[in-house]
Design brief:
The protein is an alpha+beta fold. It has 2 domains: about 5-235 and about 365-450, 3-Layer(aba) Sandwich (Aminopeptidase); about 235-360, Alpha-Beta Plaits (2-Layer Sandwich), CATH 3.30.70.360. Helix content is about 35%, strand content about 20%. It contains 12 helices and 18 strands. The protein has helices at about 20-40, 45-55, 55-65, 75-90, 155-175, 195-200, 200-210, 260-275, 330-345, 365-380, 400-405, 430-450; strands at about 95-100, 110-115, 120-130, 145, 150, 180-185, 215, 220-225, 225-230, 235-245, 285-295, 295-300, 305-310, 315-325, 350-355, 410, 420, 425-430. A hairpin with a 7-residue loop joins strand 17 (about 420) and strand 18. The relative contact order is 0.17. Bound molecules: zinc ion. Zinc ion binds near residues 157 and 218.
Length: about 450
C-alpha cells in the first residue's frame, strides 16, 4: 500500500537565475538552513543517541522486569506492582509520583502519575501498565533470542513504558530534562477501561488540558518498509438497539392489529443502517450480537444473551449490541443522527429505541498533530531512516491518547516495533528499542528547544 505522505511535496526545488552565485549562495544557506539542521543531529542529540546505544542492555533489563510481572487489567495487585517498578524509575529522575486509586465501584487497580516541573513546554507522556492477559491466560515471562523478545505485554505496551523511562533518562543525561515540564500517565486499565469513563479517565483528561503536547507510546506502526506516524485514531463506542413488537399468533402477522413483529422491524433498521449510514471514509459500525424472539434476555456487560421463540408466534423483542468508529466528533454525531432517524421510522405496531454508550473519543488529524509528525519524520531521517508518512486512521483502533487529543496537539505510536498484540504470539523487535528511545528523546528535546509553553 502506498500513500502520498505530504512530506515529499515539500521537497525544495532550486533554480539559479542571473549568475551571481554569492548572493544566491547566501540566499540558499538562509533558506535551506532549517533543512540542513533537520537533516542532521545536533551535538546534544548525538550525545543522547550515543548514551542510548550504550544503555540498550539496561533498557532490556527494565523491560524484562516489567514483563515478568503478570498484570492483566483485573489482576490489580500485578498492575500495582508494575506501577511500583515504574515509580522507582521516575522517582530516580526527580519526578513526584502518585498512585491514583479508583472508587471501588469502578473496580480497577488505579493509575500511576508522575510530574516534574521544568522551564518550557508542558509535555504529557501516555502509557499503560495493564495487559489483556488475565490469570486464566497463564503466565508468559520475558524471553529473547537477542533480537526477538516474547512474553505477555512485551509489545503492548511494556516496551512503550520502558521507552518513556529511557527517553527521560537520556534527556536527564544531557541536562535537557529541565527544559520541559513533564507529566507521565501510566494508566492501569487501558485494555478494559473502568466505567464510568468520566471517573476512570478524569486524571488523564485533566493532564490533557494541562499539556501543550501529548505523546502516546503504544506500538509503532512499521510496514511496507516504512515507519508511519500516528496522527489520528478513530473513536470507539457502543450502541444498543431495542425493538418491541406485538406478540400474537403468527397467522395474523402484517394485519393492522398485529403489524410486522420485532424481528422484521429490527431487520429493516439494520438494513437501512447498512444502506444509509455506511459510506463515509473512516466511519465503520458493526452489529456484534442480536437476540430476537418472544423471551429475550441480554447482558451487555457480559455480551451474552438467551432467546426463546416459536415459529407460530410473532416475536415481541429484539436486542442488538453494536460498536461504531469515527474519525471526528462531527462524523460520529452525523452517523448517530441518521441512525436515530431510521430507528424512529417504525414499521406498523413496532417501536424501537437506540442508546449510544460512552467510549473512546476520536483523535482527529489536526494541523498540530501533523506538525509533530513532521518533526518526528525529520528526526527519523536524521537517524538514517526514511520520512514517516501519516498513517491512515483506519489502520488503528482506539487508545487512551484519544482522551487528551481534543485538548492538545498529540502524536501516538511512539512505542516499539513488533506484532501479535493481544495474542500468545506477542513479540517485539529488540533492535527497535534504541531507535524508539532516540526518536522520543530527540522529539521531546526539539519540542522543548523550539517552543515556549502556550
Ligand atoms: Zn495497549
Amino acid at each position: 500500500m502506498h500513500k502520498d505522505d505530504g512530506f515529499a511535496r515539500r521537497r525544495v526545488h532550486l533554480r539559479l537565475v542571473g549568475g551571481r552565485p554569492c548572493v544566491w549562495l547566501i540566499g540558499f544557506c538562509v533558506f535551506a538552513a532549517p533543512f540542513v539542521r533537520a537533516a542532521g543531529l545536533d551535538a546534544d542529540e548525538r550525545r543522547m543517541a550515543d548514551w542510548i546505544d550504550a544503555h540498550a542492555a539496561d533498557a532490556t533489563a527494565l523491560l524484562r522486569e516489567a514483563v515478568d510481572i503478570p498484570s492483566g487489567t483485573m489482576n490489580h495487585d500485578g498492575v500495582r506492582e508494575v506501577g511500583r517498578v515504574m515509580a522507582r524509575e521516575l522517582d530516580a529522575l526527580g519526578f513526584g509520583t502518585e498512585w491514583i486509586d479508583m472508587p471501588s465501584e469502578v473496580d480497577r487497580a488505579g493509575h500511576l502519575f508522575g510530574r516534574r516541573e521544568g522551564r518550557g513546554r508542558k509535555i504529557l507522556l501516555v502509557g499503560h501498565l495493564d495487559t489483556v492477559f488475565e490469570r486464566e491466560d497463564g503466565v508468559r515471562p520475558f524471553a529473547s533470542d537477542g533480537e526477538t523478545a516474547t512474553g505477555h505485554g512485551v509489545y503492548d505496551m511494556k516496551a512503550g513504558n520502558t521507552i518513556i523511562v529511557f527517553a527521560l533518562k537520556a534527556l536527564e543525561e544531557i541536562g535537557a530534562l529541565d527544559d520541559v515540564s513533564v507529566t507521565v500517565a501510566f494508566m492501569g486499565d487501558e485494555e478494559k477501561a473502568g466505567r464510568p469513563l468520566g471517573t476512570s479517565r478524569r486524571d488523564l483528561i485533566e493532564a490533557g488540558k494541562w499539556a501543550d503536547v501529548a505523546l502516546g507510546f503504544e506500538e509503532a506502526m512499521h510496514f511496507d518498509d516504512t515507519d508511519w506516524a500516528t496522527v489520528a485514531r478513530r473513536s470507539s463506542s457502543s450502541w444498543i438497539l431495542t425493538v418491541t413488537g406485538r406478540q400474537w399468533h403468527s397467522s395474523d402477522i402484517f394485519s393492522d392489529d398485529v403489524g410486522a413483529g420485532a424481528i422484521f422491524e429490527a431487520s429493516r433498521i439494520l438494513n437501512d443502517f447498512y444502506e444509509e449510514v455506511r459510506g463515509e471514509k473512516n466511519l465503520t459500525f458493526n452489529a456484534g450480537t442480536i437476540q430476537g424472539g418472544t423471551e429475550v434476555e441480554y447482558d451487555p456487560a457480559g455480551n451474552r444473551g438467551r432467546t426463546f421463540g416459536k415459529t407460530n408466534v410473532v416475536p415481541r423483542r429484539v436486542v442488538v449490541h453494536g460498536g461504531i468508529r469515527a474519525i471526528s466528533e462531527e462524523q460520529l454525531d452525523r452517523a448517530r443522527h441518521t441512525m436515530r432517524t431510521i430507528v424512529a421510522d417504525s414499521l406498523p405496531r413496532t417501536e424501537a429505541t437506540i442508546e449510544f454508550g460512552d467510549g473512546y473519543p476520536p483523535m482527529a488529524p489536526t494541523e498540530g498533530n501533523l506538525a509533530l509528525a513532521r518533526t518526528l519524520s525529520a528526526i527519523n531521517v536524521a537517524l538514517g531512516r526514511k520520512p514517516m508518512p501519516p498513517l491512515d486512521p483506519a489502520e488503528r483502533g482506539a487508545a487512551d491518547i484519544s482522551f487528551v487529543a481534543p485538548f492538545t496537539d498529540a502524536l501516538a505510536g511512539l512505542g516499539g516495533i513488533g506484532g501479535g498484540g493481544h495474542t500468545p504470539d506477542e513479540h517485539l523487535r529488540l533492535s527497535s528499542m534504541p531507535l524508539a528511545i532516540k526518536r522520543a528523546a530527540i522529539l521531546i528535546y526539539r519540542i522543548g528547544r523550539d517552543g515556549e509553553s502556550d
